[in-house]
Amino acid sequence: MKNPILAALSGLLFALGLGLAGMTDPAKVLAFLDFAGAWDPSLAFVMAGGMTTYGLARLLVLRRGAPVLGGSFPTFPKTRPDARLLAGAALFGIGWGLAGWCPGPAVTSIGAGADHLLLFVGAMLAGMGLFHAWEKRRQARTGVVEPACPT
């Protein structure tokens, strides 16, 4: 998003949605992931609501010739899931299940005063930085540049 004010408003709206949905409560998230115990399906309804809203909004937005604020709609590469994607998704899921936090709710909770998450978010940012450095080195060594998601 090229407009920083719109980006900030979008982030604020996302953070409010996470808080209202209970996604910033790790006990609720862990209860959702506990299929063999006291499973709490309420976050499934949050996800279904988000996917439905996205699907309907996408249908309406794509009827337009271009985005309201200029530019063009991004195109996404038509690729199949590969081992790197599946490994990353598994690693993300394991971390989410162990900690009860994923990036969005953790950052949102810091903004709400949960300063005990500074270590978690710091480690998360360090991991992202290490991956970025590793990926740049891998691409330089192999000459293979993976397509990035458009911004």
Plain-language structure description:
The protein contains six helices and no strands. It is mainly alpha-helical and 151 residues long. Helix 1 (4-21) crosses helix 5 (103-111).
Largest sheet: none
Mean of residue pLDDT?
Answer: 85
Strand percentage: under 5%
Number of strands: 0
Q: What's the structural blueprint in terms of helices and strands?
A:
Elements: H1 4-21, H2 26-33, H3 42-61, H4 83-99, H5 103-111, H6 118-142
Helix pairs in contact: 1-5, 2-4, 5-6
Summarize this structure as a short list of keywords or feature phrases:
single chain, 151 residues, mainly alpha, 6 helices, 0% strand
What's the gist of this structure?
The chain is mainly α.
